Amino acid sequence: MKRISFLNGNFIDHSEAYVHIEDRGIQFADGVYEVILLYKNQLIDNEWHLDRLFRSLNEINIKLPYTHEQLTNIMMNLCQQNNLENASLYIQVTRGVSNRNQLIPKGINPTLIMTVSPLIVTTPTSY
């Protein structure tokens, strides 16, 4: 089955998901990430994770043009497109692409990447 990712507003084949070499996330580790678990088609502590994501982005002055609700819809859609009901969902947001310069540029668009991986759910065994 094809693996689908989300990159800058588009659901695309994971094998075709690339970011520019001058993305500040690559050049300067200028970004934030969050991991959210999906268990039985429910995002675990979703609001808490999104609050932390937006708080972290705010601290480094990156403005993501999505609301909590929009991100949640994208995440659920991504999990459905990958046919996963248990998953690890990774969100990475970088400041975006600009010419390499130590100064933080104004007016660039952040890069938003979302990927999912199957979450293997095990049951505890008694000893």
UniProtKB/TrEMBL annotation:
Record-level Gene Ontology MF annotations: catalytic activity
Gene3D superfamilies on file: 3.30.470.10
GO cellular component, one term: cytosol
GO BP term, pick one: carboxylic acid biosynthetic process
SUPFAM superfamilies associated with the record: D-aminoacid aminotransferase-like PLP-dependent enzymes (SSF56752)
Domain of life of the source: Bacteria
Family matches, as Pfam families: Aminotran_4
Family to which the UniProt record says this protein belongs: Belongs to the class-IV pyridoxal-phosphate-dependent aminotransferase family.
Name of this chain's protein: Branched-chain-amino-acid aminotransferase
Organism of origin: Aquella oligotrophica
